[in-house]
């Protein structure tokens, strides 16, 4: 098989969804973090850049509505696709993911030479996906409480509003950290993909990387028995660094 | 200043025999000691020309200034002349015209405070043609100038001569009432400033109130004296209003625009009362109405969204406290875990090489 062989990993809709989420998330951070750190000098500079706090807040709220809509659209699509059997529940965490996580940590610690063989999504990707989903739900719900406090107080106790503020502000900060530390590492600084994993933008992934990172999915696509590919992947794992192109 | 001190020195040295204040060096008081002495101004008003020598001697300038230091245009022989505005020959029509004319006299010595007045609301109003706007002597007096703020409540009395309505409301407030027995409470100029008095209408003063009120209400020693909490400012700042107000600092209120609620929006401005006073706008029974000023339709449970300047403790706000604690544990755990995994990953890559 040619070394230039690639596999289409993400369809257009998935790529657009990532692009939209990325843009909205960036704008939300840029307009939200200065509100959390309002006493810092940079916060004032950033707010002024957006034309004052009223404008920054307007942008934040529009993006928040965008995030809520994109989450709903994503889930609507996912459910429809799964019902129509166009997609599988490949993102749903299963028992194997926990075993993979333990095996992966054992591998990192040098306790085993056996690298776990992943299917379409590894446990790290599932963790980040569901973190984003639950984070979105928390941010959207608490965000709307803060957006419409008067209406919120009509149906929930008043104390929920300051609690929602603490939740929104902390969850937002945590999301910011997870993205800047974890996601940036996995998509850019990870030696396997350094300097830039373009798969989510182009949709394409090389067969080599598939063999290394998602051997079980590759074997299913190619219709070959996983055991054979599994060994190949294990062999790759040892000198995986040199395979990065 | 130096000029006058030199003059004073000269006066003291040259005429040791003639006792009394420097003003006596001129012959002005020889005529102006007559109580019945007056001048009919062009506008029809009678201008008294009497100067009480005793009063002037007791004033801050008594030991220092001669009459002509301020009345520089007056000569020995003006007895039958007209009262004119400086070099122009236009006669002065009213007493007010004359007072405003002398506005410029103080700056010779008090340049800094004079310059400050140019940024003040009184000057701004005066330059639009309002001759009632206060000039130096309206607050400080003319021949009877004493040290400002002695006693402190005199400051508010001075302002009340024009701002009677506000002064009446202030006098009934917690600050106004305490002024009779305490010198700690704010008088008008503590919030509004003295010379560069801010215009309260454009929102710039309002947005500074957390800082203004915080000067006293954040002072541990001072608040202890009255059994008040110093956490009022930081609890306000950590709330949505405080955050918004901080980020709005420096912005001017455009028409129809609403700035974040500051201290005075809930507590009142001149009419601030104790929080347990039944008439207080922040008394729990009145809070819903106060919230409704900005949040129309606020229901009974809405004021509970505000934690009444309390820290979120288990007793005061258990829900807020629990959420805070949850994230205090979760964030370090989550970030620490992810960083550890990245570190292990990289370590393994290095080992594998």
Report on the architecture of this protein.
The complex is a heterodimer of chains A (245) and B (353). Chain A is mainly α. Chain A has a domain of 78 residues. Helices cover 72% and strands 2% of the residues of chain A. Chain A contains twelve helices and two strands, in the order βααααααααβαααα. In chain A, strands 1-2 form a two-stranded antiparallel ribbon. With 353 residues, chain B is mostly helical. Chain B has 20 helices and two strands. The radius of gyration of chain B is 30 Å and the shape is elongated. In chain B, α9 packs antiparallel against α10. In chain B, strands 1-2 form a two-stranded antiparallel sheet. In chain B, β1 and β2 form a beta hairpin. In chain B, 46% of the residues lie in helices and 2% in strands. Chain B folds into four domains: 146 residues, no CATH class; 50 residues, no CATH class; 112 residues, no CATH class; 36 residues. Classes of the chains: A mainly alpha (245), B mainly alpha (353). Chains A and B meet through α2, α4, α6 and α7 of A and α17 and α20 of B.
Secondary structure elements and their pairing?
The complex is a heterodimer of chains A (245) and B (353).
Chain A: E1 6-8, H1 12-36, H2 41-49, H3 53-83, H4 95-108, H5 123-147, H6 149-155, H7 160-189, H8 199-202, E2 204-206, H9 207-213, H10 215-222, H11 226-238, H12 240-243
Antiparallel strand pairs in A: 1-2
Chain B: H1 2-14, H2 28-32, E1 38-40, E2 46-48, H3 53-58, H4 67-70, H5 95-101, H6 111-117, H7 121-127, H8 136-140, H9 153-160, H10 164-172, H11 174-178, H12 188-192, H13 204-207, H14 209-217, H15 220-225, H16 232-237, H17 240-248, H18 263-267, H19 284-292, H20 318-352
Antiparallel strand pairs in B: 1-2
Helix pairs in contact in B: 9-10
């Amino acid at each position: 098989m040619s070394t230039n062989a690639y596999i289409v990993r993400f369809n257009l809709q998935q790529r657009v969804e990532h692009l939209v989420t990325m843009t909205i998330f960036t704008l939300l951070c840029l307009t939200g973090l200065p509100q959390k750190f309002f006493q810092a000098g940079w916060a004032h500079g950033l707010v002024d850049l957006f034309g004052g706090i009223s404008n920054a807040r307007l942008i934040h709220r529009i993006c928040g509505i965008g995030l809520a809509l994109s989450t709903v659209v994503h889930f609507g699509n996912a459910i429809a696709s799964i019902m129509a059997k166009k997609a599988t529940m490949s993102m749903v965490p299963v028992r194997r993911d926990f075993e993979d996580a333990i095996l992966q940590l054992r591998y990192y610690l040098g306790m085993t030479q056996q690298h776990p063989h992943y299917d379409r999504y590894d446990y790290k990707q599932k963790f980040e996906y569901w973190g984003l989903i639950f984070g979105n739900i928390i941010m959207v719900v608490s965000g709307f409480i803060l957006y419409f406090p008067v209406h919120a107080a009509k149906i929930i106790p008043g104390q929920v509003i300051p609690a929602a503020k603490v939740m929104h502000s902390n969850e937002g900060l945590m999301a910011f950290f997870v993205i800047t530390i974890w996601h940036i590492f996995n998509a850019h600084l990870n030696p396997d993909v350094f300097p830039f994993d373009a798969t989510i933008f182009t949709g394409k992934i090389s067969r080599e990387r598939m063999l290394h990172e998602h051997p079980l999915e590759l074997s299913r696509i190619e219709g070959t028995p996983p055991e054979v590919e599994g060994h190949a992947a294990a062999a790759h794992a040892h000198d995986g660094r040199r395979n990065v192109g | 200043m130096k000029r006058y001190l030199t003059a004073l020195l000269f006066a003291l040295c040259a005429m040791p025999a003639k006792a009394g204040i420097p003003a006596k060096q001129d012959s002005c008081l020889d005529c102006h000691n007559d109580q019945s002495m007056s001048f009919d101004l062009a506008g029809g008003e009678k201008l008294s020309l009497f100067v009480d020598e005793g009063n002037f001697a007791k004033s801050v300038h008594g030991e220092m200034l001669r009459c002509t230091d301020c009345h520089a245009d007056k000569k020995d022989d003006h007895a039958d002349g007209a009262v004119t505005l400086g070099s122009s020959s236009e006669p002065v029509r009213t007493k007010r015209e004359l007072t405003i004319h002398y506005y410029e006299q103080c700056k010779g010595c008090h340049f800094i405070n004079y310059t400050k007045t140019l940024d003040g609301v009184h000057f701004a109003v005066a330059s639009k043609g309002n001759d009632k706007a206060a000039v130096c002597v309206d607050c400080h007096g003319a021949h009877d100038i004493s040290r400002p703020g002695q006693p402190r409540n005199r400051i508010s009395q001075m302002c009340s001569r024009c701002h009677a309505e506000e002064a009446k409301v202030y006098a009934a407030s917690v600050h106004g009432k305490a002024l009779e027995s305490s010198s700690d409470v704010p008088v008008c100029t503590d919030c509004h400033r003295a010379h560069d008095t801010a215009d309260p209408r454009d929102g710039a003063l309002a947005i500074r109130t957390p800082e203004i009120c915080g000067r006293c209400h954040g002072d541990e020693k001072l608040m202890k004296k009255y059994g008040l909490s110093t956490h009022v400012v930081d609890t306000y700042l950590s709330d949505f209003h405080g955050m918004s107000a901080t980020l709005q600092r420096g912005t001017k209120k455009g028409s129809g625009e609403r700035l974040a609620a500051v201290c005075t929006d809930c507590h009142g401005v001149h009419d601030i009362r104790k929080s347990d006073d039944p008439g207080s706008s922040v008394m729990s029974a009145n809070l819903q109405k106060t919230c409704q000023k900005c949040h129309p339709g606020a229901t009974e449970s809405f004021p509970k969204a505000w934690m009444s300047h309390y820290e979120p403790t288990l007793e005061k706000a258990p829900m807020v406290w629990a959420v805070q604690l949850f994230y205090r544990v979760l964030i370090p755990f989550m970030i620490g875990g992810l960083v550890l995994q990245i570190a292990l990953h990289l370590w393994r890559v290095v080992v594998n090489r």
